[in-house]
Amino acid sequence: MSSTEFLEQPVRAPAPCRRVGGGIHHHFFGYYNKSTWDRSGRYLLAQQVPWMDAELTPTSAARIGYFDLQDNDRFHAVGDTTAWNWQMGSQLQWLDGAPGRQLIFNSRTGDADAFYPGFGATVLDVDTGARRQLPMPVYVVAPDSRYALSVDYRRLYVTHQTIGYAEAGGPFELPLAPADDGIHATDLATGTARLLVSYQDLRQFHPRASMDKAIHWVSHIEINPSSSRVLFLHRWTERVKDETCFLHRLLTMNPDGSDLRLLECSDHPLPQLSDDFDPAAVGTFDYEKSEYQISHPLWQDDEHIIVWGPHAGKIHYHLYHDRVDGEVRVIGDGVLVENGHMTFSPVDKRWLLSDTYPDAQTHERVLFLFDMESGRRHDLGSFYATPDLSKENRCDLHPRWSRDGRQVCIDSVHESQRQMYIVDVSGIVERP
Fold first, then answer.
1. Which Gene3D superfamilies does the record cross-reference, listed alphabetically (predicted)?
2. pTM here?
3. Do residues 19 and 419 lie in contact, with contact meaning Cβ atoms separated by under 8 Å?
4. How far apart are CA 297 and CA 318, in angstroms?
5. What does the pLDDT read at residue 180?
6. Alpha carbons 199 and 179: distance in angstroms, whole number
7. Residue 354, pLDDT score
8. pLDDT reported for residue 7
9. CB environment 101-123: b (16+ within 10 A), e (fewer)
10. Which residue of 17, 25, 228, 389 has the fewest C-beta atoms within 10 A of its own C-beta?
């Protein structure tokens, strides 16, 4: 066997894994793009719910809280919300740039006069109990905690239900590419919000013919470590019920909306738009495994972006340079061969953490580390996900790093409950 063939075989490196908490309730965090741990490493954020896989309604409530890892994983409830979904939760996260222990999560305000009627975000000081309301729900918060970026979760519920919020009486008809909506920035200190880039702006930026009759939206917004640059996916489609008809672009901009840059576009012919196409024939994870998918982009540092997507006719994990046109390189060629939720270690960019979607036959999902230096993949464990779950209530592993880069937290249903697990990877990342 050649050295290249050896590197293409994943290394089985099972890591100690323990469930966090217990009892009759289900617990999960949501997305993969932020740390569940607070700065001290003691407290682990979570949402607590009474069901594993319920179809959500506008009144479905999740309890907001955290586990105390130094007190037998005791769960401390600090609030409730009805603004959440199974994929991202309520966008619950620590405000790392704020003093003390402050957290933020999306909530329903009941304010019918808000720009996104009824939706906002709650900022809570865990130590004092003080809380205040922001006028818009957040999608992502800048690492310095000075601002957050917001979108309309009602639009997402129409275009990509998995990451949207249900609304009483909805879903509603929406304009295709409005000039008065898009990505908003909210000042976290004052609550002042302003529109950075509209859907009309995006439709007119390097336009494609496929955009003309399509509805437009934005997802996967991420802010770089120094809070100075923003990436996002611009998506559009004529058939919202069939994700294989989604078209994608990877874009970046400054936090004020200036210097908009196009890094990648996967516009392609769509035979699925024919009248006789049956969206019900598409498997739950077929979209995630599409050769045209641009998915899960994340900053490696202030200038580099890791993403699963096509470039130069082939789909791979790709690393883009935001400021250098055409600088794109393949990561893990022949080793990383399918879509996943990837992030780099916060203390050592040598280590890339990711996962897979369920295997079509075994329904197992693999959690792994990829060594950027050796090109070797270390498989940490395999976790079963019942195929009874739908796109909207599925449970992806969504692996998240601890602050010190020695542990990983995942959501999983392999024990027939939706729970959180901590995986110890110190034996791998600290190995000489």
1. YVTN repeat-like/Quinoprotein amine dehydrogenase
2. 0.93
3. yes
4. 9
5. 97
6. 6
7. 98
8. 46
9. bbbbbbbbbeeeebbbebbbbbb
10. 228
Give every CB contact of residue 190 below 8 A, 6+ residues apart in sequence.
Answer: none
Can you give the pLDDT at residue 316? 95
3-state secondary structure of 139: coil
Distance CA 117, CA 126 (A): 27
Three-state DSSP string of 136-190: CCCCEECCCCCEEEECCHHHHHHHCHHHCCCCCCCCCCCCCCCCCCEEEEEECCC
Alpha-carbon span 59 to 172, nearest angstrom? 18
Domain 3-272+283-429 fold is: Neuraminidase (2.120.10)
* Domain ranges for the chain: 3-272+283-429
Cis peptide before 269 (omega within 30 of 0): no
CA angle 325, 288, 394 (to 5 degrees): 135
- φ/ψ of 302, rounded to 5, equals -70, -15
Query: Is residue 282 classed as helix, strand or coil in its secondary structure?
Result: coil
Could you tell me the CA-to-CA distances from 355 to 23, 104, 301 in Å, in that order? 27, 26, 21
Token code pair at residue 198: 């509209």
In sequence order, which residues have a C-beta less than 8 Å from that of residue 314 and are 6 or more positions away?
330
CB of 100 closer than 8 Å to CB of 127 = yes
**In Å, how far from its chain's centre is CA 244?**
19
Residue 428 per-residue DSSP state: H
User: Which residues 6+ apart lie within 8 Å of 9 measured at CB?
Assistant: none
Residues 224, 228: Cα–Cα separation, whole Å: 6
Q: Are 384 and 364 in contact (CB under 8 A)?
A: yes
Q: What's the one-letter identity of residue 244?
A: T
- Per-run averaged pLDDT (10 residues), the chain, 432 residues: 48 90 92 95 98 95 98 97 97 96 96 92 96 97 98 96 90 93 97 97 97 97 98 95 89 98 88 65 59 90 97 94 94 95 97 95 96 96 94 95 98 97 97 80
Give the type of residue at 255: P
Element housing 202 (H / E): helix 199-204
Burial of 99 (0-12, 13-18, 19+ CB in 10 A): exposed
For 407, phi and psi rounded to 5 degrees?
A: -135, 160
Edge-to-edge order in the sheet of strand 11-12: 11-12, 377-384, 364-371, 351-355, 343-344
Q: Cβ(314)–Cβ(291) under 8 Å?
A: no
